[in-house]
Protein: ABC transporter ATP-binding protein
Amino acid sequence: MSEAMLALRDVRRVYETASDPLVVLDGASVELGRGEAVGLVAPSGTGKSTLLHVAGLLERPQSGDVFVDGKACGRLGDAERTAIRRNGIGFVYQFHHLLPEFSALENVMLPCMIAGLSRKEASKRAGDLLERVGLTPRATHRPAKLSGGEQQRVAVARALANGPAVLLADEPTGNLDPGTSDHVFDLLLSMVRERGMSALIATHNVGLARRLDRVVTLQDGKLVSYEDNPT
Ligand SMILES: Nc1ncnc2c1ncn2[C@@H]1O[C@H](COP(=O)(O)OP(=O)(O)OP(=O)(O)O)[C@@H](O)[C@H]1O
Structure:
């Protein structure tokens, strides 16, 4: 059992390739306390996305385990892992992955409806979230009609739609200009703080990462303190 909201213990993730197996994570461990926001800054190709996929129960490690609110997830079946992911973990990606044929409001409603809310309840919740990210006037617009920053704000609202306790973000502002990036990052962080969520945020921007509680990096497949090993 763990006091941590999210923990990775001794995770090993190896990809089979045409040549030698590629060991990406090799004894990676990290614990996120309740309400703790941790930055992950590491060079390209060192395994940040892999780590977030394992942490978010999208990929299974070859060994080691992931604990969500103290629950070991390694031996759970796919259906149970999906349920934990849907209800307990929010994701924000570099490229928003919004559904192009739906409006901003509908994109945020969707996870609520998948979780079982009625259309009316989902619409109310999505409307409140869009208001929080300052997008009420754009609620009926499709993603293509929104700016990059607005699209990411919709993606943040969508990630929080089911009230997850954990937020995982993979370069959430990597596609935005510096000013917009700052704004979206601050918005994301203030919403994480308001809700007492635990967050693991991968970013190439050390300045943004330093606004979080601590910063870690990947070295030889392990997570170490960024301060000890700046990349
Ligand atoms: N499904 C896969 N099969 C084989 N190799 C993979 C797979 N996914 C990732 N890799 C390899 O694993 C390594 C780590 O990739 P990953 O995407 O986790 O790195 P990253 O730190 O997120 O990179 P970036 O910052 O460029 O997004 C890379 O060498 C990548 O090519």
Notes: The radius of gyration is 17 Å. The chain is about 35% helix and 25% strand.
